Amino acid sequence: MTEEGLLRELLAALDRGESCVLATVAAVRGSVPRAPGAKALFFADGRALGTLGGGRFEALAAADALTTLATREPLLRSYPLHEMSPESFGAVCGGEVTVLFEPHRSRESLVVLGAGHCGRALCQLASGCGWHVTVIDDRADLLESCDARVRHCGSAPGFLAAQVWRPGSALVLASRNFELDRDALAAALAHPGADYIGMMGSRRKVERVFADLRSRGVEEALFGVVHAPVGLDAGADSPAEIAVCILTEVMQVLRRRPGGFLRDRR
Fold this sequence. Notes:
alpha/beta, Rossmann fold, 2 domains, six-stranded parallel sheet
């Protein structure tokens, strides 16, 4: 695959919310499989596009690429392809390859159930932050006004059951009645993978939803992952303010930040 093709695949992966690592042969010495500038793209599920040279060397490079997805830091590493180095892995090409790994993590993704006032405000705010936003509602006219990459017109349980949750994924339930949120939450808990699940509503509504799901056999421990009522306590009133409080909480959880005031940090 050409360099241009790899870069197009990288951009397409980020657009669909999939993280990947671009690996480039930065320098070589002696006899090596590929020249400087050779590139490969590695994905979290083990897929690879392009090649750095194949064999055991590329397998080690693929493992190092996935490590950078976790650390989120670029890595420059040299691989000896000869027997004289204590770090040799059996290659006998006679040279050495230095590879630059550049992790490209997709922006967080948000799935919103409900295209009402708060749902639309949340979609608009998250989209403005560069997130990949999906909104679900059975009212096509309201969906049209939502700022989202994906607009699903229909019921939520089936959609959520088939959802491929990637790292950095969040789900917020903000539909027009508790039955819709209840059924969507049941589907989400039965198909785990989202790093954040939140549900709007009063404490009375939350307890009623949980009680209904308990009667269906949902284990009590599963409710511990649900942020409900959703959002930070900042006195929000309007849909826009509520969206700010929700998205801030989502960011705090996904990015593993403690919250609090920056002035208090030491």
